[in-house]
């Protein structure tokens, strides 16, 4: 049944006076795990998703507009081991998850109308419950546009602007955890082939264990007692055990010299390394210096010849 046909079937049902309507929500996380919820007292199923009635999920009034302003609402629910858990929220597994909401005839789920499509924004939790901000599809338009003129590169290593292949040999490692402290400091064996500080500013991505799918930005990369010590800026919000597998990705400090020497990718460098600095912008001519047409200050980045 097409979307228009399903909508018309719902309108015909509502026009009958005696209705059997409910709301259903589908939440799909970025790791591919999906959940179905409904405010009906029985389960509802359509489009291959089972919408559970025991989730305790409800939604506040939906704000929708015909312009480009951001549609928004809130989802409220109880934390449950069977659906949304506090551990998953703290780990960020629901951050940016896609959300769809329908008005459905529970007696005939083919008769339905989509009320909302968007993503989860801020999520808070307290007293065994959670509150999630829902953002409409126009939220994606609420981003800065245009280029920023700055000395360091504005691209992210491996993205469409950088174009560097982060799967290239020598730029990643897949070790197992030899020792871990507070899910923030990791020790590894067998990484001697990588230069010191090779992974600083890179990513640590867990591929097994309770934290599989989670990642963190690397703050420090140093050797300690014959082992490699990797420290993250913030701890992984899940239990990490010795023997868990992960992926370490080389880091980039956004400097032109690093792009050229470490990654041989200067053709795609997105910074402006010769842009004048603050000293040049605040310089001015003085009577004590000869007006030769050369640089105003010795700190100028421009050639003196």
From TrEMBL:
Residues 283-305 are annotated as: Disordered. Pfam families: Phage_BR0599, Phage_phiJL001_Gp84_N. Residues 197-279 form the Bacteriophage phiJL001 Gp84 C-terminal domain. It comes from the Bacteria. This is DUF2163 domain-containing protein.
